[in-house]
Amino acid sequence: MPSLSDDAYAPLSAYPESISTGRLETALKGVSKKAVLYENQMRDLEARLSHHLGDFRKVDSDLQQALHTIQLNSKRADRALATQVPRIENELDESMEALTKLGVELPVIRSQVNSIADVYLSGHETAKILVSELEWLNTDFYERWRRIIFTSTTPVSWRWKAITRTVFVISLVICFWLFWITTAGAYRAHRHRLVWGDKLMS
């Protein structure tokens, strides 16, 4: 940046009378140019300062907003810490008590479930027996005797089975015995050439 010499700011009385008007005009023009240059530089500096000031105000506004948001979040966090954390701790304590109670009651519940399962199985078996007995009662007499004698799946006691089979064997033996007597009598009659009609007539 050009600088003015001391001669430029010296009072006019300090110059000799021999200074011409041309030199004075030249000096004034130089001073005027420098003043215009300084003025342009000031305006440029002022524009830059205004721009930087606007940026600073924007940054300051953003910082204020961020600080306000941080303060709000801090207040919310403090409020949550003061209200939510005790409530969560109480709920955790209640949950632990419930789990402890369930841990104590679980074996009892398991035993009850096993008892119910046993009762269910017993009732199921009883129902099957009742259905089988109802089917047996609805069976006709001949089918009952046949199943008692020739099968082992009938819903009757072993004593009744033994009696029925004994009666069947005795009846079968008697039938065979009568058949044998009849066959032997017929054979003897045929052997002696006896005629049934003549035998009866005699």
Approximate shape: rod-shaped
Q: Please bin the fraction of helical residues.
A: over 70%
| Number of alpha- plus pi-helical segments | 4
Strand count, sense and barrel status of the largest sheet are: none
> How do the helices and strands follow one another from N- to C-terminus?
HHHH
What's the gyration radius in Å?
Answer: 67 Å
Note poorly predicted spans: 1-18
How far apart the termini lie comes to 183 Å
The overall average pLDDT, rounded, is 80
Strand content: under 5%
> Could you tell me the number of beta strands?
0
Structural class: mainly alpha
Question: In summary, what is this structure?
Answer:
This protein is an all-alpha fold and 202 residues long.
Structure in words:
The chain crosses the membrane at residues 167-187. Keywords: Membrane, Transmembrane, Transmembrane helix. Helices cover 83% and strands 0% of the residues. The protein has 202 residues and is mainly alpha-helical. It has a domain at 140-202. The radius of gyration is 67 Å and the shape is rod-shaped. It starts with 20 loop residues before the first helix and ends with a helix.
Layout of helices and strands:
Blueprint: H1 21-137, H2 141-150, H3 158-191, H4 196-201
What labels describe this entry?
4 helices, mainly alpha, 0% strand, 202 residues, membrane, transmembrane, transmembrane helix, disordered N terminus, single chain
